Amino acid sequence: MMAPVVRALRDTECAGLIMVARLEWTKFEARSLAAIREEYERVKDERYTRLHLDHVPVIDEDDLRVDVAPLMREAIRLGYGSIMVDGSRLPLAENIAATREVVELARQAGVAVEAELGAVFGHGEGPLPPYEELFASGRGFTDPGEAARFVRETGTDWLSVAVGSLHGAISRTRKDEKKAEARLDISRLKAIHAAAGVPLVLHGGTGIRKVYIMDAIPSGIAKINVATAIRQPYERALAGGAEKAADAVYAATVRVIREDLEVAGSAKVINPAGGSA
User: Is 185 considered catalytic here?
Assistant: First the structure.
């Protein structure tokens, strides 16, 4: 799926991170960090792209402990431009400690770190409670005061927050499900940004009502993760062959860039002089 995504970013002059999460090689077919890096080198266009290691959880989707440090070291050695440690299933103090360890490791190589505070639901095997019930309760939402402490004590560069979005399901029995139409707590988001003082990240970018996306960007969101909107068209088209699947990914990515997020041309804003982003 990487080549048509890069082509879509180039054709829309949009800056984007090509991201892979640990679950992509443990539950899907991405194979390894090295294999992903090799494919990226083949198709990259660094006027518009960088390679990012996304969710490496300290406690994974199956509630198993993950030895995070070797994966981070490998990604840095392979040349990933940024990495994410996800300690969101840990108590606050343990999340801070785990994140700080990764930040200290990455600092030595000049690599940016993303961390997560709060619980973005959706990756688990079981059914979720009704979305409106989740949103109304604020269950798992990031606390602004904790965000201030977290950033201060970890030194993380980017902070992924929970303010109403949902991850797409990854289990084989649920991965084709349509996501609930999500909304975002913009007031909370603004408070988190004011408290944390670093760029914020929104995971679960597929399925959020557009009006909330447009409000989230000026409220601190600097990176939006999109996977389900691209993965599901790919999987539906794959029976017709690799070329049709690639075309489906390209069309879906262009639609997300131009219509859903309205970020076409963003590479010019990020790097107005041209050349590498």
Answer: no
